[in-house]
Predict the structure.
Amino acid sequence: MRQIFEDELNELHVRFSEMGMMVNEAIYKSVRSFIDHDKNLAREVIDNDRQVNKREVDLEKRSFEMIALQQPVTSDLRMIVTVMKASSDLERMGDHAVSIAKSTIRVKGNRRVPAIEKDIAEMSDSVKKMVEEVLDAYVKEDEKRAIKIANEDSGINEYSDRIYKACIAEMQHDPSTVVGSMDYLFVASYLERIGDYVTNICEWIVYLKTGDIIELNSNVDETM
Amino acid sequence: MRQIFEDELNELHVRFSEMGMMVNEAIYKSVRSFIDHDKNLAREVIDNDRQVNKREVDLEKRSFEMIALQQPVTSDLRMIVTVMKASSDLERMGDHAVSIAKSTIRVKGNRRVPAIEKDIAEMSDSVKKMVEEVLDAYVKEDEKRAIKIANEDSGINEYSDRIYKACIAEMQHDPSTVVGSMDYLFVASYLERIGDYVTNICEWIVYLKTGDIIELNSNVDETM
């Protein structure tokens, strides 16, 4: 019985990590498509989101069945609850990648501001790093690292502040850039929200190890 | 044993509904504070958020203990899983009310646009209605109504679009309104996100009744 449970738990971890990698790729590709004005790549992100959603349903079903059939307690139960909760966060992160991809398709060749695009690209690199780190911290059940990763979210918010200020300056200087600057702001806000979801997953990793629910970063100081 | 479980489950429902009402009040007060430039009310919302967070932790602990000690299966288990998931959504909704309250405190008497403020007030009334309805649908486990409520989210997105367009027009017309218009956009985006979380809770209500995880509204067509 225990061996079956261990095998199922292991499979659950693997499938969760795979979902994380799918989402990470979607985020990366969506920002690439936005910066490069690559509508085909944007469409690919939108199409692939179905796989991410399917995986969430799959994880949910497996988790539920494991609880119902194996009736785990304490840390085993906590492990499954964590997957149940964190897979919802991953799914929402995938939705935001789709939002970025949809922005790409909407954009109609507005005037581009290289300095802002550079910040968006760097912001997205930081988000990508956070996503990769949180998946690793999850696999290693490393709650100390999870707390550290959540702290990195303030770096994401700094990018957001900078992009916000640059866009405001652009719009004040030349009203014809208002629509284009708003596109930049949208993409930055989606990335910021993805960072918030990474912070949620960090909280679940702490929960996994300690059983305590803590708020690592309140999402409330964000710009958008 | 069954009676103890029923009593605990009932207590869980009551405490979840109470949390929902706390969050609903926070949203309402935060928008009131923004429209009325009432910084005291905004501070009240920020202070009270601690109670919302505490309640989430309380619900989490109760749910976990009920699963571990009573080992529920099928619909009983699903009921508890729903509380576990939906309480996270309520907590995030509370965070966004805090974000609106913080916007209120930041605002420095920018020029006001009554037409946009009217739309924000109406948008917040619609969100409030959605929150109240979803709590009622939860109590009644009414998945058909949950699907209907999720559809109302498109109405929220319409407000968002309208506020977006009005703000863009303001900014293009008079660059000195850029910062003030952005404040309006922020508040609208927080309200929109609260609507997204209501949709999540609608999805959990469907799950509660059917065991199926469905995506009622992909969050991906939103403006911000």
